[in-house]
Amino acid sequence: MKCPYCGHPESKVIDSRPADENASIRRRRECLSCAKRFTTYETVESLPMVVIKKDGSRQSFDRQKVLRGMIRACEKRPVPLAELERIADEIEQELQNSMEREIRTEDVGEKVMDRLRKVDQVAYVRFASVYRQFKDLDTFMAELNKLLAEK
Fold first, then answer.
1. 98 and 66 fall within a common domain
2. Total-model pTM
């Protein structure tokens, strides 16, 4: 590791410990040339995911966008924010594990709806009404009837 003080290319590790809830490793290093100490962080490199929108355009996956959509659907509902963050993490991890670098928005939306259906059915219907772009009362009622049939 290159020293940030003198630029020498070699250093030794003095201490290593987990950081950021075991998401990275914090290392204290000492330069072999100038003996100054510095800290580095080692993290797993995640491959970027691209979302293919309904119109064919592409944009990078944004976990915050998924979370905002769920928060909006759960407005004035008894769903803790921690639960929504856990779901967003779960979805992101599932997408990362799939090894697919391009994901359709439909797939992301279905994953969100599957999880919201289990957490809060009102939030699920709210999310589905926006996501599936219900055009009239009949399509809205069809979705509600599907929910009732599951019970």
1. yes
2. 0.63
The three-class DSSP label of residue 64 is helix
C-alpha span between 18 and 50 (Å, rounded):
30
Return the SS3 of 114.
Answer: helix
145 vs 71, residue with greater confidence: 71
- Looking at the fold, whether 100 and 70 belong to one and the same domain comes out as yes
Burial of 95 per CB tally in 10 Å (0-12, 13-18, 19+): buried
Instruction: Let me know if residue 121 belongs to a domain.
Output: yes
More confident residue, 130 or 86: 86
DSSP-derived 3-state class of residue 59? strand
Distance of CA 26 to the CA centre of its chain: 23
Asked if residue 2 is part of any domain, the answer here is: no
